[in-house]
Amino acid sequence: MASLTPPISHNNLDFSDVESNISDSTNDSTPPPYRHKRRNTLRSLLKGNGWRRSRSPSPIDHNKRARRRVMWKRVLIVGGILTFLGVIAGITYVALVAALIKRLSPPTMRSGLQRITEGWREPNSSGPYTFPWPEDFSRDITPANCHSHNDYWRAVPLYDALAAGCVSFEADVWLQKDNELLVGHAKKALKNQRTLRSLYLDPLTNILTHREVSKASDPSLETGVFEKDANASLVLLIDFKTNGHDLWPVVLAQLEPMFNSGWLTYFDGKEVHRGPLTVVGTGNTPFEDVIANSTERYVFFDAPLLDVANEKYTTENSYYASTALKPAIGRVGPIKKISSGQEDKLKTQIKAAADKGLVSRYWSTPSWPISLRDKVWTTLTEDGVGMLNVDDLVSATRWNWNWCVIAGLTLCG
């Protein structure tokens, strides 16, 4: 009987060689070649240089970069040239504008009136602003037929208008409980010190006294407010803001001393005697009160220009014939210029007033844009308007309206 092979015992196996091989493999610090290459490649990719090192630039890439550098150089050169030319153009433009302004600006007036406007102060409890009388009060000032619209709004009421040469000026009056006449456009803007006396009547009295003007009873005005034109009569337009019948006697009472001095234009029942100052009532001025006194009438009426043909308006009771521009000829604006039909209406209305001996005046004329304003001014004066209603005194009297706007640049106004 065959004998069985005895089982292998683990205790009899010798593993020393295997353990020695494993130990040698573990302690070997040199990595396999493939692992070393993979780690270096990963590091290169992380640094962003892997692909660059992997291949060298092609000639096409060099050409693109060269063209790009040339293009940017050209852009910088062109940009530099344009910037330089822009700076030169800007300097040239500013120089031309400065030269135009210097060439076209009117010379500075150094009359006594100009010095008065520079030193003027608001009236106070002591009365109106006073000053030593200048002998060159109106020297070199040429009077013009312009009306200082809302004159009391100006920095220097009355004197600014006279310094510019405007012969007409406006005062809105409000009757108070103490029979004082305050001057202002709106009731809330009234101030106790700004009265008809302090802003207009007292200063005018001072001027007419020192100028030793001719009297209304004299055959002719040999001496007036303006040295250049003694015949230029001033016009005070009083706009009655409150009840006209209540205002009327108070206005007459305040004007009476000037009438007694012989300075006011008046109607004696037969003829009109023109003095150095003419007073005209507008607004709520009652026409029936104006004509009530037929022998010593020294306040005249502002007749409606659109009804000037009415036989009741004559030089014996009226001086101005006025209207707003829009009701007279229609709308005039930046887009809609004065048409030939509108100008024909202006000519007809102005002639109608002149034929009756009245002074035509249009208020509420456009003040902007300056080119439109100047066009309206030019049209009115060429058509023979009696008095030009203005807000900008210096532009109206001392600038050449044809040169106020040049190439879109406003030089005046």
UniProtKB/TrEMBL annotation:
Residues 15-64 are annotated as: Disordered. One of its GO terms (biological process) is lipid metabolic process. Keywords: Membrane, Transmembrane, Transmembrane helix. The chain crosses the membrane at residues 75-101. GO terms for molecular function: phosphoric diester hydrolase activity. Belongs to the AIM6 family. This is Altered inheritance of mitochondria protein 6. It comes from Lophium mytilinum.
